[in-house]
Specification:
Blueprint lengths: L2 H27 L9 E10 L2 E12 L3 H31 L8 H17 L3 H62 L5 H17 L2 E5 L5 E5 L4 E3 L7 E5 L6 E5 L5 E3 L8 H36 L9 E3 L7 H7 L2 E8 L5 E10 L2 E4 L5 E2 L3 H10 L4 E5 L2 E5 L5 E6 L11 H5 L5 E3 L22 E6 L5 E7 L7 H8 L10 E5 L5 E5 L6 E7 L10 H5 L3 H5 L5 E3 L1 H5 L26 H7 L5 E4 L8 E4 H41 L3 H36 L1
Antiparallel strand pairs: 1-2, 3-4, 4-5, 6-7, 7-8, 9-15, 10-11, 10-16, 11-12, 12-13, 14-15, 17-23, 18-19, 18-22, 20-21, 24-25
Length: about 700
């Protein structure tokens, strides 16, 4: 071997050792830098013409572990998913308050019934006024709570929009660094710095959504979603995302690097975006819907108790509410019997009109069966014989005793029933609580009744369990069609929703959508141009189709203003039809109605499916307790999942750092090795120099 070859080998050793020392220097300098992956100088032998010609650096690479990096990113996505969901649920739970606290929403429900119990035990106008104020306070609290839950959903929308902006920025940076890394790799440069920066950006991206990462041919990466959809690094630029809130559910929209646009929410599996979308599209709407169902049934049992009694003295006129259903249809759907009792100012019965509903018609005072269309006129005639009258305006029925008399309604045996309500309650003659929106979906309609939707159409969106869009379907009700016909349209497997679930009438004639088992499908209106009989509520509002319609009900309740102004108008007395004149059938001082309202929270009632709560029959108080438990359990489970996921993420990060991070002891060994190699190469150069000097001396 020539001396020049020896010098060349020594020179390569010096250069290689110096490069190794530089790598060690960079590693030590970044020992505490978050996300830094240690460098490795990859040495190789140089062979020329079959002979060793020294060493050089094949390349400086990162000690990256693809498996541990993916595990860390998956754990990070899961942790942020749980944290986002837990944060929203904790905020929602805080709105309801601690059920054991006297200031919680649920305590307000108990206080309302307790106030009537106190008024019954020590009756006075003041006590009744306080009881009515407690009712007003409860329903105001329910409305405020419902609005605050809607605000949480709105705030979640803002957070999702902010996250989407961050994701788009990260994808753009990741894709741009791919070009830098590729150019540097082709030029033989050290690109580990750019690779570290890119890796850290991908780690940040995994906080918002779960991703899969694969190495590209030139040192960069290809980033894909969990379903394989390209996000960055495939050579066509980055994907972009947007957030659409124009529909009933918030939708994450994906635009691929190739320009195609499609919904993406269903493709998410974890990450902060998934947690926020789950909270916004599922948990908060379900919670709001259950609150509305509790509020609706609380109003229902209070009104049922009040309508089973009468004010003392009996009022001269009873004016009902707009039921949303024309009176002939209502009458045709009633069963059982009721009596319109006329009393004088002393509470003595002056006469009564006995009505029995049968076969879609009715009889008055034991007469022949009459068609439902004649009801108002026939009742007007019967009351007219006692000095009273009956009239209607639209769907509102008004009864008048005439003169100085009063009028009371007493259901017979079996009691008049329609949609689970008695005659007085159905028409709302003595309601305590009213609603500004359609809240009671127990319509009483039969499948053979006309639907009343003779013009317009409505479009419903089918969504998956996580709120992701599945399909939009439009329905045009058949003019002159029946309720059963409308259900058949809705349940069609070709033009309706039959592939996703079934619409049906329950025992109280409420329309209920039952999704296919285990599917989690839901339907919500996108648009609705129908009106019942041309002036009433739309089809989706009337039947309460969709989580949004059902969830918004809690904000519409209030106490009848006339009762707040004059508590003596509250129906608190019980008619004793067996009393023989001149004995009073409605004596003054009767407080049985107050006691009935105080016990209404314990009465069994039918609850519609709401959120993740099934249809069930139990008391309002028990439903409230179950709701409080569900909310607490949800928040607790989310917090537990958050803690567990955070621990898993920390473990994954620790393992990753142990594999990719800088170990000072290891770097010290490497430094010593490179120093020794440097010294050895230096000594080889000295030896070659001495040999040159000796040869030159021999020549002289």
């Amino acid at each position: 071997m020539s001396l020049n070859a020896i010098l060349s080998i020594a020179q390569s050793g010096l250069t290689t050792a110096q490069a190794g020392i530089n790598v060690v220097s960079d590693n030590v300098a970044n020992v505490n830098t978050p996300g830094y992956v240690r460098k490795v100088a990859n040495e190789q032998s140089v062979v020329l013409a079959g002979q060793g010609a020294g060493v050089d650096i094949a390349g400086i690479t990162r000690a990256a572990d693809a498996y541990l990096e993916q595990a860390n990113r998956t754990a990070t996505a899961n942790s942020n998913n749980s944290a986002a969901l837990a944060s929203v649920l904790n905020n929602a739970q805080t709105l309801f308050g601690d059920p054991s606290s006297s200031t919680s929403f649920f305590a307000g429900l108990d206080n309302m019934f307790s106030a009537f119990s106190s008024a019954s035990a020590a009756p006075s106008s003041s006590a009744t006024s306080q009881a009515l104020n407690s009712v007003s306070s409860f329903f105001q609290s329910a409305g405020t709570l419902s609005n605050n839950l809607a605000t949480i959903a709105s705030q979640t929308d803002s957070q999702i929009n902010a996250d989407v902006g961050t994701v788009n920025s990260l994808l753009s940076q990741i894709d741009s660094l791919n070009q830098t890394i590729s150019r540097g790799s082709i030029g033989g440069q050290d690109v580990s710095g750019a690779q570290n920066q890119q890796s850290q950006l991908i780690d940040q991206l995994s906080q918002y959504m779960n991703v899969n990462v694969a190495a590209s041919a030139h040192g960069g990466v290809v980033v894909r979603g969990a379903d394989g959809s390209p996000l960055a690094g495939d050579g066509e630029g980055p994907a972009t995302f947007s957030y659409d809130t124009t529909g009933p559910q918030g939708q994450l929209i994906y635009t691929s690097p190739y320009g195609s646009t499609q919904p993406y929410s269903s493709r998410l599996q974890s990450g902060e975006l998934n947690g926020l979308l789950t909270a916004r599209n599922s948990e908060i709407p379900h919670m709001r819907e259950q609150l509305a169902e509790l509020t609706t049934q609380a109003a229902g049992v209070i009104n049922a108790a009040a309508n089973a009694h009468t004010p003392t003295p009996a009022p001269a006129t009873l004016t009902g509410k707009d039921t949303g259903v024309d009176i002939p249809t209502v009458v045709g759907d009633f069963s059982g019997s009721t009596s319109l009792v006329v009393l004088n100012s002393s509470g003595v019965i002056q006469g009564q009109v006995n009505i029995t509903f049968t076969g879609g018609g009715y009889t008055i005072n034991g007469g022949a069966v009459q068609p439902a269309a004649n009801f108002v006129a026939d009742v007007n005639t019967a009351l007219g014989a006692l000095g009273g009258s009956a009239s209607s305006t639209g769907n509102v029925l008004t009864l008048n005793a005439g003169g100085a008399n009063g009028l009371a309604i007493v259901d017979g045996s079996p009691a008049a029933q329609n949609g689970g309500k008695g005659f007085s309650q159905y028409f709302g003659f003595n309601d305590v609580v009213r609603s500004s929106v359609v809240a009671d979906y127990n319509t009483g309609l039969k499948a053979t009744d006309l639907s009343g939707f003779n013009a317009g159409s409505f479009t419903l969106r089918v969504s998956g369990a996580n709120g992701a869009k599945v399909q939009d379907i439009s329905i045009t009700p058949t003019p002159g069609g029946t309720v059963g016909g409308l259900l058949t349209q809705l349940n069609s497997t070709t033009t309706g929703f039959g592939l996703y679930g079934q619409f049906s009438l329950n025992t109280n004639s409420a329309v209920v959508f039952t999704p296919n088992a285990g599917s989690g499908y839901s339907v919500d209106p996108l648009s609705d141009t129908t009106q019942r009989n041309g002036t009433g509520a739309s089809a989706t509002a009337f039947f309460g189709i969709g989580t949004q319609n059902r969830g918004a009900r809690a904000s519409g309740f209030s106490v009848n203003p006339a009762l707040l102004q004059n508590p003596n108008l509250l129906a608190v007395g019980t008619i004793n039809t067996a009393a023989v004149p001149p004995a009073a059938s409605l004596p003054s001082g009767d407080t049985s109605g107050l006691d009935a309202i105080s016990q209404a929270g314990k009465a069994l009632t039918s609850f519609l499916p709401a959120g993740n709560a099934p249809a069930q029959t139990l008391s309002v108080s028990d439903y409230a307790a179950a709701l409080a438990a569900r909310i607490g359990d949800k928040a607790k489970a989310a917090e537990s999942a958050k803690t567990s996921a955070a621990a898993t993420a920390q473990t994954a990060k620790t393992r990753l750092n142990a594999s990719e991070g800088v170990n000072i002891d290891e770097e010290l060994v490497n430094l010593t090795t490179y120093q020794q190699a440097y010294n050895a190469s230096s000594r080889l150069i000295i030896a070659a120099r001495d040999m040159f000097d000796t040869l030159l001396g021999m020549v002289r």
